[in-house]
């Protein structure tokens, strides 16, 4: 974890602790049937998730474009037994399965699309849920903007991963994330961010529509911009846990980081 008082340490690229990818997922594996293999192959995957065995009982992974990440790098507590988790924008459920493996009762939400988003939809989620015999509940379609009152104050941990910069109204999403979090609970934000202006300490949400050719990209906060916006809605104790894309290229426009925040009791 990096203290916000030492934000210049964004020059650091944090190392990845070694971990075994199968250790972070629900592990009710079975030998995948031919139908399951065909379904697996027909889905466009972002994440690399072990979903079952081949006939030789070797693990079969989804053909993700992203490598498997260690959830410990993302500020997710090591032990979630007896805890409730809301995974906003769960997509193929990578972090949902990781939290369930850590013992949580997970609710996942996603929406159909916001201006062309939702690559792959929830097919990957539904496949993994069956293959892993996971218990997480998917509420779909449900936008973070429409979070119902019965979900307010319900979750010990709320994940808002990879969603903020895809939204037209990211501040509404911050407020809804606060409302979903139990008093005393933890919210975790993973987002793309404005790297150069963060180095200058600016408090900004830069509007870069179509950044990197993706029509679903809009707002890129600076580190201070996100921290200040979280403060508006009542979050405290903001900490950075993971920063990517800074040290090797000082001029790089965008990177990614994770920030945790507490809803006070
Ligand atoms: C880049 S993916 C991130 C997926 C996952 N959370 C992760 O970090 O790997 C963004 C996800 O947010 C979802 N999303 C977009 N707008 C949303 C909204 N208004 N409410 C909830 N989810 C939304 C998209 O459908 C997509 O599944």
Please provide a brief summary of the model:
With 265 residues, this protein is α/β, with parallel strands linked by helices. It is 20% helix and 25% strand.
Q: Would you write up a description of this structure?
A:
The protein is of the alpha/beta class. The protein has one domain: Rossmann fold, CATH 3.40.50.150. Helices cover 20% and strands 25% of the residues. The chain is built from 6 helices and 11 strands. It has a 7-stranded mixed beta sheet. The chain has a two-stranded antiparallel sheet with strand order 1-2. A two-stranded antiparallel ribbon has the order 8-9. Strand 4, helix 3 and strand 5 form a beta-alpha-beta unit. The structure holds S-adenosylmethionine. S-adenosylmethionine binds at residues 88-91, 94, 109-111, 114, 117-118, 143-145, 161-163, 166-167, 190.
Notable traits:
binds S-adenosylmethionine, alpha/beta, two-stranded antiparallel ribbon, 265 residues, 6 helices, 20% helix, Rossmann fold, 7-stranded mixed β-sheet, globular
List the helices and strands and how they pair.
Elements: H1 34-42, E1 50-53, E2 59-61, E3 84-88, H2 94-101, E4 105-109, H3 123-131, E5 137-139, E6 155-161, H4 170-180, E7 181-194, H5 195-199, E8 205-207, E9 219-221, H6 223-232, E10 236-244, E11 254-262
Parallel strand pairs: 3-4, 3-6, 4-5, 6-7
Antiparallel strand pairs: 1-2, 7-11, 8-9, 10-11
């Amino acid at each position: 974890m990096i203290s916000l008082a030492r934000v210049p340490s964004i020059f650091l690229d944090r190392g990845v602790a070694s971990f075994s990818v199968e250790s972070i997922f629900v592990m009710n594996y079975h030998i995948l049937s031919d139908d399951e293999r065909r379904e697996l192959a027909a889905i466009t995957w972002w994440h690399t998730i072990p979903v079952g065995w081949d006939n030789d009982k070797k693990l079969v992974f989804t053909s993700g474009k992203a490598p498997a990440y260690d959830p410990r790098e993302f500020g997710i507590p090591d032990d979630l037994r007896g805890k409730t988790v809301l995974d906003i924008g769960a997509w193929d459920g990578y972090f949902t399965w990781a939290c369930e493996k850590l013992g949580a009762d997970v609710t996942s939400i996603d929406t159909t699309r916001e201006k062309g988003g939702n690559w792959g939809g929830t097919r990957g989620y539904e496949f993994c849920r069956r293959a892993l015999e996971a218990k997480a509940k998917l509420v779909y379609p449900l936008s973070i903007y429409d979070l119902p009152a019965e979900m307010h104050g319900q979750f010990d941990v709320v994940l808002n991963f990879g969603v903020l910069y895809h939204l037209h109204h990211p501040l509404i999403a911050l407020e809804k994330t606060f409302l979903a979090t139990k008093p005393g609970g933890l919210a975790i934000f993973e987002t793309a961010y404005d790297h150069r202006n963060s180095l200058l300490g600016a408090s900004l949400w830069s509007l870069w529509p179509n950044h990197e050719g993706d029509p679903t990209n809009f707002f890129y906060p600076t580190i201070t911009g996100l921290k200040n916006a979280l403060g508006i809605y009542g979050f405290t104790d903001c900490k950075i846990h993971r920063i990517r894309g800074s040290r090797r290229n000082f001029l790089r426009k965008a990177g990614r980081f994770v920030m945790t925040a507490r809803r006070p009791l």
